[in-house]
Design goal:
The chain is an all-alpha fold. Helices cover 69% and strands 0% of the residues.
Amino acid sequence: MSLPGKAAAPKTRARQPFYRDLSFQVLAGMVLGIATGYFFPKLGINLQPLGDAFIRVIQMLIGPIIFCTVCSGIAGVNDFKKVGRVAIKALVYFEVVTSLALVLGLVVINVLKPGVGMNVDMHSMHSAAVDAYVAKAHHVVTTSEFLLNVIPRTAISAFAGGDVLQVLFFSVLFAFGLAAIGERARPALNLIDAVSGSLFWIIGLTMKIAPLAAFGAIAFTVSKFGFGTLLSLGKLLLEFYLTCALFLALILWPIASVNGFSLPRLMRYIGAELLLVIGTSSSETVFPQLIDKLERLGCDKSVVGLVLPTAYSFNHDGTCLYFAAAAVFLAQATNTPMNWHQQLVLLAVLLLTSKGAAGVSGAAIAVLAATLAASNTIPVESIALLLGIHKALSSGFVFTNIVGNSVATIVVANWEKALDRVALRNELKTGYKPADPPHGRLERPGSSAATH
């Protein structure tokens, strides 16, 4: 019995065994995958469908989850001015931080010069592997084409194509429509909340096979490319991983500190997701889980619903580091002269083309090819040098993207005064602990049956 005037102490959940923690399971799956790919390469090649199947299940749910989250957040708030403020603040933040990432990437690659001395002869390179990229690269998407492509031809095509920007565009308009009709939208919002709950239940079920997916993806990568390829271009890998670490330490860490939270603790909180993207090289695999965790951290539901999907299209911190490092590395390796003026032009081009990079593994190298074609300086065919280690590079930049998008959402929520600092402090201090779903249902933070 609690004393009058005093709140009852919250019940503490028993600490689960370490082997039931998702981070440990994903890490164990990755270690087993590396061993399998190295010692049993033929078996490792055949394990690719494990990772691909997991990614497809998540991709299947991305569109509906964005739609439900955006509609519930915006229509629930019913404040058009707030939506506009959040969008403007988010876009300004994205542009500033991605610009810093590009500058840092250019500085580090010019200081360390990992490509100098390779003296690659483009005439002797077999470019059959990059023919598809080269063909696409010479069709440079203009700004007007990019903006027009944000609008889907039909509402269904946005979801069918899996284009995050198109889904977001339709979802925002639909949410505004719900907000405009007021109380008459209540039945539709109740239905959307119910659908959202069922989608997150599916995500919870799917995450149980995440360690298996990481195992299959890593086993395939090691079997296909081996360690020899990684070692032959090890200088670039080490330079790029160092650049990602410097970005986290010199840019994101101070941003987090100024906004009152610890970056290392945040990375620990989303540790399972970070390990998963290392294994799958796809940021889409953790999108639904990030929505859940960011709401648990005290970010307002409407802010998460608008900022995180937008960040997936516009806030590619790690990908910008990759573009800057890879482009200058290829210039160094092929003895293509590039002065600082040319590199600044390259930076301006990257600021535009990087917005087209999707969260799916493999899209970044296509955008890089388009960037090289637009700059008209570095041979597009030279991207063949990166194919063998692209998987290892993508693990680094997708990891950085996820950390950057999580920081961005918390920062914008803080700027908007839509951040529960008590929840943020408590969650980061204790670490993520999955809620026990009552009667087989998965409750999300912010729903009527759950609180932060």
